Amino acid sequence: MTDVRxxxxxxxxxxxxxxxxxxxxxGRWEAEPGSGGLVTALAPVLRNRGGLWIGWxxxxxxxDMNLDGSLREAVRGSGFAFKPVxxxxxxxxxxxxxxxxxxxxxxxxxxxxxxxxxxxxxxxYRRVNRKFAKIVAAAIRDDDHIWVHDYHLMLVxxxxxxxxxxxxxxxxxxxxxxxxxxxxxxxxxxxILNALLAYDIVGLQTHRDKRNFVQCVRSMRKDVAVxxxxxxxxAWVDHREVRIxxxxxSIDFEEFSRKAGSFEVNRxxxxxxxxxxxxxxxxMLLLGxxxxxxxxxxxERLMALADALERFPDxxxxxxxxxxxxxxxxxxxxxxxxxxxxxxxxxxxNGKYTRTDWLPIRYIFHSIDRTELVALYRSxxxxxxTPLKDGMNLVxxxxxxxxxxxxxxxxxxxxxxxxxxxxxxxxxxxxxxxxEVAETINTACHMPPEEKRRRMKALRRIVRKxxxxxxxxxxxxxxxxxxxxxxxxxxxxxxxxxFPPRTGPHRPxx
Length: 510
Ligand code: F6P
Prior knowledge:
Elements: E1 10-16, E2 19-23, E3 29-33, H1 37-49, E4 52-56, H2 67-78, E5 81-84, H3 89-108, H4 119-139, E6 145-149, H5 156-162, E7 169-172, H6 180-183, H7 189-196, E8 201-204, H8 207-220, E9 225-227, E10 232-237, E11 240-246, H9 253-260, H10 263-275, E12 284-291, H11 298-311, E13 319-326, H12 333-353, E14 361-364, H13 370-379, E15 382-385, H14 394-402, E16 409-413, H15 417-422, E17 427-429, H16 434-445, H17 449-465, H18 468-480, H19 484-489
Parallel strand pairs: 1-4, 1-6, 4-5, 6-7, 7-8, 8-11, 12-13, 12-15, 13-14, 15-16, 16-17
Antiparallel strand pairs: 2-3, 9-10, 10-11
Helix pairs in contact: 3-4, 4-5, 9-14, 10-13, 11-12, 11-16
């Protein structure tokens, strides 16, 4: 097998660059690190092997903006090159806030009632995808490996073909792919499905996403035959092969583990634990870390915590939730409403239960640095990760990677992509079932150390084995290697089960 990772320059094309521009106190433009799953996962890969990243710097272009100049400093420390895609205010409004955030995001997360199928958005989406394609076409060399990412850029492959780019192009969707019942609601369903079939590979996060995509292909394109089984299948589109596979994205496991054992993290962990009380009477720390998003299930989680405190009074004074919300899409009114809803619930719960020696919820609305985040992961007795729907959820994997002492309990939504891969080792919950989540919090608080250890060891083994480098190798190998068989055999440790067995209280296994 050739080493597809290193022989060619890797060109990543994504909506955002790994840095975002913002104005500093003096009104000058400066670059700050971006947030979100895609950037977190891909930045170490490019840092490791170099390459080119093409994307939007996160703000609409203004006259006083010198993109290359503002990004120069960020490029210097990153280990790879950036090519910014400038977008006007109208383009940002129609393509990013409109088509991506008001149509694709809610629809692909099964939240169809939140969609606004405004036809004007589609025009701008097409125009911006064409703009990305032109910039890519001008920047690439013949032997580059081109890898396009996510729902913002579904049309770029097709546009590159129109520009006579003939090399292979890979595409990976970081969010879930919906079942046909939902996808068929999309007014531009044929255009989008056909554009996806213009790529040489369509990578999806989970078995379920792949099955949904294949079902859409089968029901909408009777002329396309989908053959094969296993991780990667082939669709034959006008005698051209399009590979379709599931590749669960991951993290740099070793880096997180190493950081978790570092001197500065150990010192912070000791401080955080001592703030939670002395040994015999130490409060248990529950941790939630999410971007501000209605898909993350934060209000539902807070209601579950309130239910747990109400129905299991012995938890009062014994558990404390640290909920970190990283600001995101804050210009969108629905996200502002969500923030208010979260803050109202936090204040209601704290108002009802706080005692002089105990605060039920600590709430943070800003991003925190890496050392503090890892220290919080390691200090947390329980991670409460309960999205209503999520492509993967890397917080779940980061939590496991940092639990180097094999302690800690992961409570995970069965609708997070990570649940597909982590099997029965977390405590799986239905995030809509407030009562079940409350009961599971109680179970986690009383879990014997031996069981915690057994589960965490199994979780860490899976995350270690299928880390971010495995993900890149598996994906690039599938696009660019002739030996498809070999890459189809690359698999995670555990077999897929459509509905992993439940371990929560009072629930028979499905
Ligand atoms: O894949 C999901 C994703 O595109 C991530 O990159 C990021 O976490 C988020 O969704 C996008 O957030 P934003 O709209 O702020 O770029």
